[in-house]
Structure formats: C-alpha cells, structure tokens
Amino acid sequence: MKLFYINDKMFQNDSVQDEVRYRFIKHLQNNRIKMILISVKNEESEALSQFLNSYAKIPVMISPLTFEFEGIRGSISEDTLSIEGYPTEQAIDTGCVEYDLETKCVRHIYFDMCLNHHLEDDFDLLYDEVERHLREKLKHLKHKHKKDV
Predict the structure, then answer these.
(1) Which pTM value belongs to this model?
(2) End-to-end CA distance of the chain
(3) Res 34: pLDDT
(4) Is the dihedral of CA 12, 15, 16, 20 positive or negative?
C-alpha cells in the first residue's frame, strides 16, 4: 500500500499541469492507494474538486491538518508533509512523493519529463531505457571497483 503526497499546483488550469495531472492519475491507477495527501495554498479549484469526487472512496487529507489514520501519524501544511518514521518532505509542483508502506521507501516522482510523450507506453519505454542504462553503469562501476581492489 502506498501514500501519495502532492500539492494543489497539480490542479492549475494550464497545459503542463493538465499533462502532469493525467500522468499522476495513470500512476495512481497502477498502484494500491492507502491515502492521498494534498498541500493546498490556494482555494480549491474545479480540477481539485473533480479529483476529490473521483477518489471519494480513498482517504484524502488536505492541509492544514494533523492526522492519525490506521496507525499513520503526521502533519500536513501548505508546503510540507511530516509522517512519523519518515523524513519531512516538500511538495513537488510537477510530481508526487510516494511512500511505500511495505518497504518503508520514499520516492520522488516527476511527471513533467518528456512532455511531448503523451502516451504512457512512451513514458514507460523511456523509463525502462533510463533504468537499463543506469543498471549497466552500476554494473560497470562494480566491475571496475572489483578490479581496483
């Protein structure tokens, strides 16, 4: 199960944020959601209201708030989230912070990369390519380190 932390900039009405929001929603559809946390600086927008209606069956916490939900304790302000047992995180304007409750890992996900790629398949291919490249680099560095030792 995962927690997702975003801010209200994701719900601004412009082409970049529309694409970021689309990618975020696609990402949510591929994960088991425990809770969504939203830092809000401005008044609620129509896009935020639509999002809240779409995810009405999932707990959504909106700032400012101190909360305890199913053993998860934290505090959300207009620009930060503190969850007990995790580092304090700032909201990402064009992405989300993902908390994996099973592995206790926190991951920053940026949805504004390659905005010309509108299909998730293209984005996944790019992600896979970057991941493959990084694995090869890591393998090379490990091999080089073994030779130097």
Answers:
(1) 0.75
(2) 41
(3) 94
(4) positive
